[in-house]
Structures are given as structure tokens and as C-alpha cells.
Amino acid sequence: MFKVKHLIILVFVAAIGMAGCKSRFEKLRASNDVKKKYQEGIRLYNSRSYSKALVLFEDLSQKYRGREEAEGLNFYYANTLYKLQDYTTARYQFKSFADTYPASKDAEEARYMAAYCYYLESPVFSLDQENTYKAIDALQLFINLYPTSERAAAAAKYIGVLRGKLEDKVFENAKMYLTTGPSNADNYRAAVIALKNAQRDYPDIKYAEEMDFLMIKSQYMYAKNSIPVRQEDRYNEATDLYNEFTENYPKSKFTDDAKRLKSDIDAGIAFNKQEMATFAADQAKYMEMLKRTGKIKDTTKVNNTTDIKNK
User: Fold this and answer.
1) What is the DSSP-derived secondary structure letter of residue 205?
2) What's the whole-model pTM score?
3) Helices within the chain (DSSP H only)
4) Superfamily of the domain at 180-311
5) pLDDT tens, position by position, 45-75
């Protein structure tokens, strides 16, 4: 029983202590002692009490405007937002700091952190990549401004990661046309165009080999689903793509699949030629039948008669 009462007392005393701490913080927040607020804000920041530090820094931001202490305060403010993972507001504050205090010893770090916050806000490749482009621009700007900085190498590495994400997106978008081809044969042609455009925009894209293979496949499917009169030319385009592929990647992991496609292309061309020959023969027979039945004039006889009269 004594232990229970003792525990209750300890909890009560602890609650009073916590309430007292809260009261002291609120009392300081409500005071006009800006110097003490600033010192306490830094102490809270260093002790990782970022939420409380942010409250004090926000209170001081207006009161320190135009004062010498504003530089340090604004840098702490931006870093506090970053620690709280509010990257949108943090990057704005870091950029504002770098623009306002370009000669500051912290200007370089602020410019870097503004770009890094953009990097952290870059979404997965399947979503809109506006922030990815902005992050690349911001990181490249940092490299241009501080080419000898120790942070320049990290900025370049992050640009590489972001470009990889953009490559993922264009590659997946191009493949989407191929997968939707069965519902619309024109999408096979769109896939070829999209794959070519992606390689033009990203010459060093890591998917280049697979993309070249998929171009063969897409062009073959486009030819196969075309009307007979268009097929041979489109099969020939697929053959050209195959020849380019084998020249560029003689030991590709897609070689066997590419060879099977080439066999299908050759078979498609052979079948199309036979089909067109049969169509031409049937067309000639049909025209001959029309001439015999008089449903169309025999232009040969008409021409011969005209020639006799002219003589």
C-alpha cells in the first residue's frame, strides 16, 4: 500500500515539474526579453528540441529584422525547419538567407541546403517530376557558384541520381506504348518514337541496350498489325533496327530474342509478298472478268480501233 502511495506521489510531483517547465517556456515566449529568447532557442536547438526552438525563432524573426543578430537567427531558423523535415519552407528560408547575406560565412552552406531540400522533395519517378528538374537546376547552380567547394562533389552525385530518376520515367513511359499496343496498333509506332526521343534527350541513358531491342519489337508489331500494302516497308524498317542493334551490341543479353524477332520479320515479309502477289493475281482475274462481261470497256480494243481510224 505504501509503495502505491509513494508511486502516486512521484507521478504527481513529476506532473507538477512538467507543468512548471511548460509554464517557464510559455512565460519566456510571452516575454520581451529577445536576448534570452534567442539564447534559449539556440539551447533548445542544440538539445534537439526543434519544435520549441522553432516557436522562439519564429517569434524573434520579426523583432530581429534589420538587426545584426538577424543573420544568425535566420540561419538557425532555416536549419530548424530542415531538422523538422519541413523541406519546402526550409529551402525557401535557406535560399532567402543566401540571397540576403551573400557574403556570410554560411551563404555557401545555405545555398547548398536549399538545393538539397529540393532533392529531398523529388518524388518517385512515376509522379510529376517538376521538383526533380528544379533540384537539378539548383544543384547545378551551386556547382557553378562554388566549383571548388567540398560540397560540389555531393551536388554532382545528387544530380546523377535525379537524372537517373528522369531516365526511369521516360523509359517506363515509352514501354507503356508497347504494352498498350494490342488495344491500338498505332501505339506500337508511338513506342518506337518515344524510345528514340528518350535516347536523344538522354544520350547516356542506362537502358539504351534494352531500348534498342524494344524498338525492334515495337516496329515488328507495328508492321504485323498494318494493312498488307504497308507491311513490307514497315518490316524493312524493323530489319534496319535489328541490323543497328546487332552492330552496336554483338554480345547483348537480348541477342537470342532479337534473332527470334528477325526470323519473325523475315517470315512476315515472305508472307506479305505472297499475299500481295495473290491479291494482284486475283485483281487481274477480276478485271478480266469485268471486261468479258462488258461491265467495263476493253481499253485495248478501243485504242486499237482509234489507231486504225487515224491511219
Assistant:
1) -
2) 0.74
3) 2-30, 34-46, 50-63, 70-83, 87-100, 107-120, 130-145, 151-179, 186-201, 208-224, 228-248, 255-292, 299-310
4) Tetratricopeptide repeat domain (1.25.40.10)
5) 999 999 999 999 998 888 777 677 789 999 9
